[in-house]
Amino acid sequence: MLLPCALLAALLAAGHAGVLFYVPRDSEVSAAGELSDPLCVRSWFVAARKQRASQFVSLILPGAARSLVQVELVLLPALVFDFIPANPCCSLPCQNRGVCMTTGFDRYECDCTRTGYYGENCTTPEFFTWLKLILKPTPNTVHYILTHFKGVWNIINNISFLRDTIMRYVLTSRSHLIDSPPTYNSDYSYKSWEAYSNLSYYTRSLPPVGHDCPTPMGVKGKKELPDSKLIVEKFLLRRKFIPDPQGTNVMFTFFAQHFTHQFFKTDHKKGPGFTKAYGHGVDLNHIYGETLERQLKLRLRKDGKLKYQMIDGEMYPPTVKDTQAEMIYPPHVPEHLQFSVGQEVFGLVPGLMMYATIWLREHNRVCDVLKQEHPEWDDEQLFQTTRLILIGETIKIVIEDYVQHLSGYHFKLKFDPELLFNQRFQYQNRIAAEFNTLYHWHPLLPDTFQIHNQEYTFQQFLYNNSIMLEHGLSHMVKSFSKQSAGRVAGGKNVPAAVQKVAKASIDQSRQMRYQSLNEYRKRFMLKPFKSFEELTGEKEMAAELEELYGDIDAMELYPGLLVEKPRPGAIFGETMVEIGAPFSLKGLMGNTICSPEYWKPSTFGGKVGFEIINTASLQKLICNNVKGCPFTAFHVLNPEPTEATINVSTSNTAMEDINPTLLLKEQSAEL
Ligand code: HEM
Ligand SMILES: *[C@@H]1O[C@H](CO)[C@@H](O)[C@H](O)[C@H]1NC(C)=O
Ligand SMILES: *[C@@H]1O[C@H](CO)[C@@H](O)[C@H](O)[C@H]1NC(C)=O
Ligand SMILES: *[C@@H]1O[C@H](CO)[C@@H](O)[C@H](O)[C@H]1NC(C)=O
Ligand SMILES: *[C@@H]1O[C@H](CO)[C@@H](O)[C@H](O)[C@H]1NC(C)=O
Ligand SMILES: *[C@@H]1O[C@H](CO)[C@@H](O)[C@H](O)[C@H]1NC(C)=O
């Protein structure tokens, strides 16, 4: 009997949207054992699930198989599928980062190697794991300690041995949560050379949910996820602007967008799991271009500098016409306003072009400094060394100003690669799709943009580079520093102008088959939420979410992060920080320049270049490149400064870098 597999294959290939379920009679099985080929039947169910053909089931009745004429079509919606065991890894049985591997169609094994746990599902802790579990404080406790007891921290921050020890702990405990070398990607849920070596993929912290699983989240929740547009409208869309209680400003908002768009550059042509940024980290391709070809178009080829133009005595990026380095602009943008920079999309928002201009000026400024030190160097060496210095400055500013602000910690973070030199740490990084998704911080955006007594709607603001020329960088920096950004967690704070982006984040997460919010919490050492109320910290949204998702274990990652109960007085909830921080710190410290052979003065042109990195700050970057050295920070001044509260030594951490009289002048000007 050659029938079953070949027949099934032929019928399926002929576009028969269904599964042929062959039920052999007992007698037949014994008479012609090859008929009841269970592997074949099972694999067709798998194939059918992939084709989402579960509504149609054709049943070959017992005995009918021999005569092809008698194939009866019976509609058995989904019912039959519940009989057939799903891929056993769909239920995500392996705990504590154990790896699930199928062994045959209906069995699995958990590989608990080096997880610190053992047992069928890696659930039994080894003794030392058990001890650690007892002693380890919860992330919320650690966060509480770091954001309170200011007096104690002021002392600790001043004792370098303690500060170094704590910083080393922060870096290692966070980065150990990131697989390095990377493991999965959106097409490979098992380790493979392809997933490791193909840099066009974002990596994945958790493998995708199998296509053959009963529900989009594995086995939990409903067969279909709620409409993504509905999720956005009900839970994410802003009703009234909710300012961030940590005082984050628009200066921070655009820094975030500018900085992250060097490594979040999805290749939508290939799909949401693919990136165009092969450097997978802080390589400053947003300043220098992703390819050598683009870089050469942007370079002046003299003294290491980038091309520029002078307008009203100030340096601005060149135009596309000058460089031939293409940018994305709508056709109505006039030629002289089509500025050309490393990242193709930075014409989108004047806030991005402002930072692009600041970094362009910084590059050319550092080139001048280096040329003073090294009149013997050619254009190439000046360019290359300046690029490394700017990478260093970026990491320094991101850790000590940007992450410092976001964390809300009284503990003073420190950028010092030497802290990791005697640790187990890999100097490499691969950007994860989940990191990209969680970084969709569009709630930061205000409703309108305020610049020097003028107010711009999104409509007027987007693709409008004339704003930058009209006001100049100085006014932009001053205004952005004063304007509050929105709170990210807590729900209902995505501005209507970008609600489509929020919907796209959800749709793309589904396309990439992300596991549930709770699986991600477990992956990053957090306890899964037990209820929707525990997630949101309130009842109204929780009830509606429960109705739509059915099961807290089926709640999706991205909407989960945005509706999560924020920590007290904070911009984010626990999950955003505990998942985001490991990706972030690994990406920053895993940079090549932080490795022992690179991290030395000669790499950066000597003491002077090294010093530029080690003293970099946001305020200094602005002072060195923006006329009038406007006061800036990543938060609005809070409380609003009055004569009485102006306190030069406490009002701002960037203080040591700026001229106090200037600060006073700036602040009183606002009164
Ligand atoms: C006026 C401001 C902004 C606008 C108009 C805007 C708009 C967009 C759009 C249209 C996308 C592509 C969505 C898609 O189809 O996948 C996107 C992606 C993204 N946005 Fe924004 N956005 C803005 C500000 C921000 C800010 C402040 C952040 C903060 C970090 C941010 C983070 C991201 C990230 C991480 C992505 C994914 C990028 C990628 O994968 O290539 N955006 N945004
Ligand atoms: C392991 O997980 C499976 C599936 O969730 C469950 O049926 C089984 O009882 C678990 N085994 C143990 C030892 O807990
Ligand atoms: C911190 O240390 C510096 C010198 O290392 C000292 O001048 C300063 O007074 C110290 N501050 C506190 C609060 O201990
Ligand atoms: C990476 O994978 C994608 C998708 O399979 C493929 O199109 C691309 O050619 C691969 N890239 C390399 C360098 O192999
Ligand atoms: C762009 O900004 C300029 C300068 O502030 C403003 O006059 C103009 O109306 C804006 N353009 C659009 C299309 O809104
Ligand atoms: C400024 O802060 C310092 C240290 O906290 C304090 O000693 C000083 O009295 C404050 N000055 C003013 C004017 O509030």
UniProtKB/TrEMBL annotation:
Native source species: Gallus gallus (Chicken)
Cellular compartments per GO CC: cytosol; endoplasmic reticulum lumen; endoplasmic reticulum membrane; neuron projection; nuclear inner membrane; nuclear outer membrane
Catalytic activity: (9Z,12Z)-octadecadienoate + AH2 + O2 = (9R)-hydroxy-(10E,12Z)-octadecadienoate + A + H2O; (9Z,12Z)-octadecadienoate + AH2 + O2 = (13R)-hydroxy-(9Z,11E)-octadecadienoate + A + H2O; (9Z,12Z)-octadecadienoate + AH2 + O2 = (9S)-hydroxy-(10E,12Z)-octadecadienoate + A + H2O; (9Z,12Z)-octadecadienoate + AH2 + O2 = (13S)-hydroxy-(9Z,11E)-octadecadienoate + A + H2O
Primary location group: endoplasmic reticulum
Cofactor(s) for this UniProt protein: heme b
Annotated PANTHER family: PROSTAGLANDIN G/H SYNTHASE, PROSTAGLANDIN G_H SYNTHASE 2
Record's keyword terms, sorted: Dioxygenase, Disulfide bond, EGF-like domain, Endoplasmic reticulum, Fatty acid biosynthesis, Fatty acid metabolism, Glycoprotein, Heme, Iron, Lipid biosynthesis, Lipid metabolism, Membrane, Metal-binding, Microsome, Oxidoreductase, Peroxidase, Prostaglandin biosynthesis, Prostaglandin metabolism, Signal
Pathway assigned in UniProt: Lipid metabolism; prostaglandin biosynthesis
UniProt cross-references to Pfam families, sorted A to Z: An_peroxidase
Family: Belongs to the prostaglandin G/H synthase family.
EC number: 1.14.99.1
Cell location: Endoplasmic reticulum membrane; Microsome membrane
Domain (EGF-like) ranges: 85-123
Positions bound to substrate: 174
Protein name: Prostaglandin G/H synthase 2
Enzyme class: oxidoreductase
Residues involved in heme b binding: 442
